[in-house]
């Protein structure tokens, strides 16, 4: 077997074991939270009778361990089950939310990743001069401001004062792509500002590191232009650390944007998960947790593989 | 000047300003009384209902876990949904009178034990079938039988027997209750075909709209029914869209930028600022909801009435209304009843903040001076943590050592409220005094969160229930209120207003003490002026 293929198989197997462990942790965690789904649904209007009736109809009177294995049995057959709170099919409602989350993450990434790398290259080209300092100052400022604050400021100026884009990012399937993009314009800007600095700084640092090498000096002595040296010689050799940080930020865009979702009322997975945690709706929390864990594991796997492929020494091990 | 005049006429049209005030303000702008009166006439004309358009409301209080099952409805977004597709037997109007919906009239036996609701005929459900007394019966059964998961189970308990008698739905009670029809206005009791036994979340009812899109926690869209029975009074917009906007800033931004026309729960902190925005107004309705600090009177040290009185005198009510509610509310008197209730006795003296009296009662209580722990969470009521801090400060002045323990929002209602002996909480209020007392102050009430268990109080409540002479009932309720005020475990510093934001394009908005945003009916009862 080719060593890379072998590595992928190993990693995927490990990933599945990790997912399994994550599901136990999530289940245990939700069991430790005070109250159960019946209490959370009825809230202040709970009485002993309606609590007992609701618990029985939701199957909460069974012991936790047997509920976990029932759930696991379902998952292994590809059945995510139904939400305890509203009886909806989890796969169906989760599918829609996941699609929205990926849609937002995709557009935020499509803008922020190239922009961050370009700005990183630019910062290297003008190292320690005004463009470098401006880029660093601006991106470090935006990463330091909490994302909801950036969101509110952009809503006030762009949506209320200028009226360019909507402040409510609720999208649905019947909207055209243009309408959807209009709705998510401000959240995409916020997310871009939030993730830009990390990727930009890493690009800058990684390339600067490579720039110290002898072959860059050679290229310079050959008379190549600075930007061309960076793009052709420095960047390919700096790709491994950049890919790593890009993947971490992509993972953040998928699993960590609940605050932005709340500010813009965006129907993504973060809000969906938080609602169900608050109601102790364990099957949904499990399903969301698995997807989030899978995203992290998957993106890290990709980052590893890309670093290996980008490095000839790892690509052709002796 | 024109803008200003338009603004003033708007205010008159909404009932926020009297005609006399308007003429005076207009004169200040250089407009003669005759012209001002003509302007008023035009503005009144602009206020006749219009049909059509798409009404968008932005609401907090929705989660992706919501269902359309009325039995499990406990927050505002699903309640707004219920009001769009369903109706109850009766409703309570802003003046506290019964508004007959599925029942066209109600009659009581002389002893107030048997109540007969005459059910309207020929009213179609949205599935095409006509609503019958049998559907009413089944609905009530679903909320009261032994499998019931309903939030209305508590109020259905006093019912001994229900039956259908021709066109009538008849309720027989264990003990007399002169207010029974008001209980039937509970929003859980939406009449559903077959009682909703087969599919409680189907969203089929007799209301003015049908569900088009149902995405819990995101949005809910509705379309007007052509066969709605009461189309002369409700169902003006062709379509309704309710967006779930739990974030307060997102809600106000959506209203300001015109993406929604009505929002609920405007944060009192920003209400005055928002009201200055040009194209909208902030509407505030004084209601029956109240914010409380509750003590279990059967648990030390709160079993000592002197200590309870000390705490009641130590709290600065006016400061709470000014700082926590920013004036959008009124001070409370340690009883859960205020002037918004029918049969309220205005003559009960208001308890004033007094450090001396607090210190005096505290000394009399003989408390050992160990910290008194007050549990709060932000979710107990908006501003609860700040209110507790104010309480702590004013109590400290009287030498009472309050210690605040912050609890997580998550699980507050199951782990702290009604469990711990001293905590912050809120009540939404009820349409009548009897229901409020029966819900939380009767010995046998599940939600007796102050452990107020007094036979004499229960007896008074029962005698008031059976009393059909309103003067005598008022006297009994007054006595009960004063008992709670002077001996109860309830510290009630403030009644909160329902604060909503309404676009100037919305007509027909009235303030309703029964609940927020016109008792959650603004979307079906208001119209769009530009429709």
TrEMBL record, chain A:
InterPro entries: BPD_transp_1_N, MetI-like, MetI-like_sf
Record flagged with keyword Transport: yes
Gene3D superfamilies for this protein: MetI-like
Domain of life (superkingdom): Bacteria
GO CC terms in record: plasma membrane
Pfam families in alphabetical order: BPD_transp_1, BPD_transp_1_N
PROSITE patterns: ABC_TM1 (PS50928)
Keywords from the named record: Cell membrane, Membrane, Transmembrane, Transmembrane helix, Transport
Subcellular location: Cell membrane
Bilayer topology annotation: Multi-pass membrane protein
Ranges that cross the membrane: 12-33, 102-122, 134-159, 179-197, 238-264, 284-310
Gene Ontology biological process: transmembrane transport
Main location: membrane
UniProt family annotation: Belongs to the binding-protein-dependent transport system permease family.
Descriptive protein name: Peptide/nickel transport system permease protein
Annotated organism of origin: Sulfitobacter mediterraneus
From TrEMBL, chain B:
GO biological process terms on file: peptide transport
Molecular function per GO: peptide transmembrane transporter activity
Places the protein is found: Periplasm
GO cellular component labels: ATP-binding cassette (ABC) transporter complex; outer membrane-bounded periplasmic space
The UniProt record lists the keyword Signal: yes
CDD domains cross-referenced by the UniProt entry: PBP2_NikA_DppA_OppA_like_17
Keyword Flavoprotein in annotation: no
Pfam families: SBP_bac_5
Domain Solute-binding protein family: 100-448
Keywords: Signal
SUPFAM superfamilies: Periplasmic binding protein-like II (SSF53850)
Family: Belongs to the bacterial solute-binding protein 5 family.
Protein name listed in UniProt: Peptide/nickel transport system substrate-binding protein
Species per Swiss-Prot/TrEMBL record: Sulfitobacter mediterraneus
């Amino acid at each position: 077997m080719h060593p890379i293929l072998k590595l992928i198989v190993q990693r995927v197997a490990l990933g599945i074991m990790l997912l399994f462990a994550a599901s136990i942790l999530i289940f245990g965690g939700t069991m430790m939270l005070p109250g159960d789904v019946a209490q959370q649904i009825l809230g202040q209007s709970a009485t002993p009778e309606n609590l007992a009736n609701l618990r029985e109809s939701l199957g909460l009177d069974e012991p936790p361990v047997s509920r976990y294995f029932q759930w696991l049995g379902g998952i292994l057959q590809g059945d995510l089950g139904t939400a305890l709170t509203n009886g909806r099919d989890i796969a169906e409602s989760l599918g829609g939310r996941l699609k929205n989350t990926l849609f937002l993450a995709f557009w935020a990434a499509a803008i922020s990743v190239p922009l961050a790398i370009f700005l990183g290259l630019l910062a290297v080209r003008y190292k320690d001069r005004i463009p470098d300092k401006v880029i660093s100052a601006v991106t470090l400022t935006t990463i330091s401001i909490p994302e909801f604050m950036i969101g509110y400021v952009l809503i006030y100026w762009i949506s209320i004062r200028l009226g360019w884009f909507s402040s409510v990012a609720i999208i649905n399937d019947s909207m055209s792509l243009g309408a959807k993009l209009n709705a998510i314009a401000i959240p995409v800007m916020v997310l871009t500002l939030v993730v830009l600095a990390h990727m930009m700084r890493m690009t800058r640092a990684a390339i600067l590191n490579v720039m110290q090498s002898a072959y860059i000096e050679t290229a310079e002595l050959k008379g190549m232009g600075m930007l061309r040296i960076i793009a052709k010689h420095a960047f390919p050799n700096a790709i491994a650390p950049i890919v790593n940080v890009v993947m971490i930020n992509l993972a953040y865009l998928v699993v960590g944007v609940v605050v932005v979702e709340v500010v813009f009322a965006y129907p993504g997975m973060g809000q969906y998960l938080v609602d169900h945690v608050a109601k102790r709706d364990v099957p949904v929390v499990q399903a969301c947790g698995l997807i989030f864990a899978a995203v992290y594991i998957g993106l890290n796997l990709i980052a590893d593989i890309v670093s290996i492929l980008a490095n000839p020494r790892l690509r052709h091990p002796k | 000047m024109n803008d200003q005049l338009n603004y003033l006429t708007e205010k008159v049209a909404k009932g926020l300003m009297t005609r006399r005030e308007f003429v005076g303000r207009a004169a200040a702008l250089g407009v003669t009384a005759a012209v001002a009166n003509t302007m008023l006439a035009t503005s009144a004309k602009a206020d006749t209902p219009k049909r059509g358009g798409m009404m968008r409301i932005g609401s907090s209080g929705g989660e992706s876990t919501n269902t359309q099952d009325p039995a499990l409805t406990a927050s505002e977004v699903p309640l707004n949904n219920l009001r769009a597709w369903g109706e109850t037997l009766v409703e309570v109007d802003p003046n506290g009178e019964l508004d007959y919906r599925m029942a066209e009239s109600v009659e009581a036996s002389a002893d107030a034990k048997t109540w007969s609701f005459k059910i309207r005929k020929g009213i179609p459900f949205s599935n095409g079938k006509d609503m019958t007394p049998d559907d009413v019966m089944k609905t009530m059964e679903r909320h009261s039988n032994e499998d019931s998961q309903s939030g209305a189970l508590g109020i259905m308990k006093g019912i001994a027997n229900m039956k259908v008698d021709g066109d009538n739905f008849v309720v027989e009670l264990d003990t007399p209750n002169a207010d029974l029809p008001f209980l039937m206005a509970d929003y859980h009791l939406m009449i559903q075909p077959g009682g909703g036994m087969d599919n409680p979340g189907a969203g089929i009812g007799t209301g003015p709209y049908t569900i088009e899109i149902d995405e819990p926690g995101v949005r809910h869209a509705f379309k007007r029914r052509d066969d709605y029975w009461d189309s002369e009074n409700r169902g003006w917009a062709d379509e309704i869209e309710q967006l779930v906007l739990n974030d307060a800033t997102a809600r106000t931004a959506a209203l300001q930028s015109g993406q929604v026309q009505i929002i609920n729960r405007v944060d009192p902190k920003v209400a005055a600022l928002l009201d200055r925005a040009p194209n909208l107004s902030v509407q505030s309705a004084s209601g029956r909801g109240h914010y409380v600090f509750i003590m279990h009177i059967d648990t030390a040290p709160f079993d000592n009435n002197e200590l309870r009185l000390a705490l009641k005198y130590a709290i600065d009510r006016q400061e709470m209304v000014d700082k926590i509610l920013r004036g959008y509310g009124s001070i409370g008197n340690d009883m859960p009843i205020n002037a918004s209730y029918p049969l309220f006795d205005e003559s009960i003296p208001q308890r004033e903040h007094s450090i001396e009296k607090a210190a005096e009662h505290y000394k009399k209580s003989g408390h050992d001076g160990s910290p008194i722990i007050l549990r709060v969470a932000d979710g107990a009521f908006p501003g609860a943590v700040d209110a507790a801090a104010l309480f702590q400060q004013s109590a400290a002045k009287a030498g009472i050592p309050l210690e605040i323990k912050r609890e997580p929002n998550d699980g507050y209602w199951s782990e702290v409220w009604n469990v711990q002996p001293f905590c912050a909480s809120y009540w939404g209020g009820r349409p009548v005094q009897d229901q409020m007392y029966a819900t939380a102050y009767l010995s046998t009430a599940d939600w007796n969160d102050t452990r107020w268990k007094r036979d004499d109080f229960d007896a008074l409540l029962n005698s008031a229930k059976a009393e059909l002479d309103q003067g005598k009932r008022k006297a009994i309720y007054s006595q009960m209120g004063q008992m709670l005020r002077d001996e109860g475990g309830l510290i009630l510093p403030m009644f909160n207003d329902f604060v909503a934001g309404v676009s100037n394009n919305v007509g027909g908005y009235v303030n309703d003490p029964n609940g927020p945003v016109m008792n959650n009916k603004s979307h079906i009862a208001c119209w769009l002026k530009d429709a």
